[in-house]
Design goal:
1 helix; globular; mainly beta; two-stranded antiparallel sheet
Length: about 210
C-alpha cells in the first residue's frame, strides 16, 4: 500500500473517530511506577544498564501489563525505561493499560512490542492489533502492520507497508463503535467518554 493512500485512509478514520466515544489518555501515573517482572531466566548487565528476561515473561508497571517470550529492558541516565517484547514463534506479544480515570483499557498485540517511558508511546509491530475495552467488552479495534500509539497526545498511526513488505492483504482495518447521542433514550448505554483518539495525518510516528 502506498503511503499516500494510507494518509487518505487516516483522514477517513479521523472522521469516523469523531462519531465514537474517543480514547482518552492512558493512566498518567504509570510512567513513574516501578517495573516488576516475572520470568524463567534473567541476565543483567550493570555497565549497560540492561536486563534480558526470557521464558513466559510477565511485566507490570502500574496498570501496564506486558506478556511475551522475551523482554529486553534498558534504562538511560535520566531513569527512562525502554522495553522490547518479543513473542514466541507463531504467537503474539501482549500489552494492556488502563485509561486515565475510567473503567476502560487500551490493549494490543504484535509479534514485537516496543515501549518507551521517555516518549510515552507503544509500538505494535507485525500482525499488529490495538483495541479499546469498555469494561471487558471490545469497543474499538484497529489492525495493521505497524501501530504506534502516543499516550501523551492520544494520536495513533497505522502503517501497513512495514519495511517495504505489505501486510494484512494491503489493508488497514478498523472497527469503531459510534458514541451514543446525548439525547438517547434512558437506558441506552454510551460506548465511551472523553476526548477523541486522533489518527495521525502523517506517518512520522511510524519511523524508527
Amino acid at each position: 500500500m502506498k503511503k499516500a493512500y494510507l494518509s487518505t485512509l487516516q483522514y477517513l478514520l479521523l472522521a469516523l473517530c469523531a462519531l465514537t466515544g474517543g480514547w482518552a489518555a492512558a493512566e498518567k501515573a504509570d510512567r513513574l511506577k516501578p517495573m516488576n517482572v516475572e520470568s524463567d531466566a534473567m541476565r543483567y548487565d550493570d555497565l549497560k544498564q540492561t536486563n534480558v528476561f526470557t521464558g513466559r515473561v510477565v511485566m507490570t508497571k502500574g496498570t501496564i501489563i506486558i506478556r511475551g517470550a522475551r523482554v529486553d529492558v534498558r534504562q538511560d541516565a535520566e531513569g527512562n525505561q525502554f522495553g522490547v517484547v518479543t513473542a514466541e514463534p507463531g504467537k503474539l506479544a501482549y500489552f494492556k493499560q488502563k485509561r486515565e480515570g475510567l473503567d476502560e483499557y487500551i490493549e494490543g498485540e504484535g509479534e514485537t512490542i516496543e515501549y518507551s517511558s521517555k516518549l510515552d508511546n507503544v509500538r505494535f509491530i507485525k500482525r499488529a492489533v490495538m483495541r479499546r475495552l469498555v469494561g471487558s467488552k471490545v469497543n474499538d479495534e484497529i489492525t495493521g502492520g505497524l501501530i504506534v500509539y502516543d499516550n501523551t497526545t492520544d494520536v495513533f498511526t497505522v502503517d501497513n507497508n512495514l519495511g517495504g513488505q505489505n501486510t494484512q492483504n494491503g489493508r488497514v482495518r478498523a472497527m469503531l463503535t459510534p458514541k451514543a447521542a446525548a439525547s438517547a433514550p434512558a437506558g441506552t448505554a454510551s460506548s465511551g467518554t472523553g476526548p477523541v483518539l486522533r489518527p495521525s495525518t502523517t506517518l512520522e510516528g511510524a519511523q524508527k
